[in-house]
Amino acid sequence: MPSSLSARLAPIAILLAPLVAILAARLATHSDLAARHPRTSALLFLWIAADALTLAAIARAPKNRPGLRALLGTIAAGCIVATVAGAGTVREALLDMQAVVLAMALTVIAYLGWSAADALRTYRRTGSAELAACEVLPANLVRFAMFESSMMRLALFKWGAPPHVPEGAQGFAYHRVINPMIAAFLVLQLIEIVVVDLLVSHWSRLAALVLLALGIWGALFLIALMKGFRLYPILLDGDCVHVRAGLLIDLRVPIDTIKELEASITKAEADRADVLNAALFSHPNIIMRLRTPIRHAGLFGKSREVRRIAFRLDQPAAFIEALEPHL
What we know:
Blueprint: H1 2-28, H2 32-36, H3 38-60, H4 68-85, H5 88-96, H6 98-126, H7 129-134, H8 139-156, E1 170-172, H9 175-200, H10 205-231, E2 234-237, E3 240-245, E4 249-254, E5 258-262, H11 267-270, E6 275-277, E7 286-297, E8 303-311, H12 316-323
Parallel strand pairs: 6-8
Antiparallel strand pairs: 1-2, 2-3, 3-4, 5-7, 7-8
Helix pairs in contact: 1-3, 3-4, 3-5, 4-6, 8-10, 9-10
Transmembrane segments: 40-58, 70-91, 97-117, 181-200, 206-226
Keywords: Membrane, Transmembrane, Transmembrane helix
């Protein structure tokens, strides 16, 4: 258990440690000592920012060996952080050191140029803007931005669109159980937006605007969930079962890998790492046990092997009747 806990906490520590170090260094630039020695403070802040990000990159890299471009990127990020995050006097002192500014600018330009060249080659090879963007920005950040963009487009458009069921496939709905619950959350969210804005605006208009923006984003996210659950049903498509949960889950399961349909599953079993539970906000009524595990990639690239796949349908009997002849 201790080793398992350490393994889970290590990625969080690797993420937080450089942020804490940089935040502490930033606070130090506002001290009286930093104001008396701004040039030294500026150089120390630059070194701490670049060093903290570089050490984090080394810790995250396979076998602790990041590529040269990755190291160049962390140093460039440290240069940007030191330029924009320090206290005013420290930042002015840093910008007054022309040789240091030139070195920082060349570092940033070298990284951006190298990354842009790699991104262009990736796009020409794959035709994927997402993969190309991953050459310049952190992959998880790109995936998050792509996911958020897709959710916002879904929330704002595709009103009244028919469910996405390709020709020759059979669609099986699951939104009639889930969407009423999400609609209740949406009503509460809209009430909360109004109440919070009225209360917080008396204290700080800026804070009220920030919370208003977050509240509107949350409402749009719930709308996108509801529309996604309706528009993307689970499919029986040729020789595979296409398991979907809106834009949150998308997995094709070859029918020949399905060993049997199980009658039920407990909550403890559904929460196991080798079970993909696509029955969001409800309990599964379809459980497929696989002959061999298949790999499922999550939203942000993390993958795992699953041996059972569980989901909930509005009419499970119709799905079982359609699938069983193929097992």
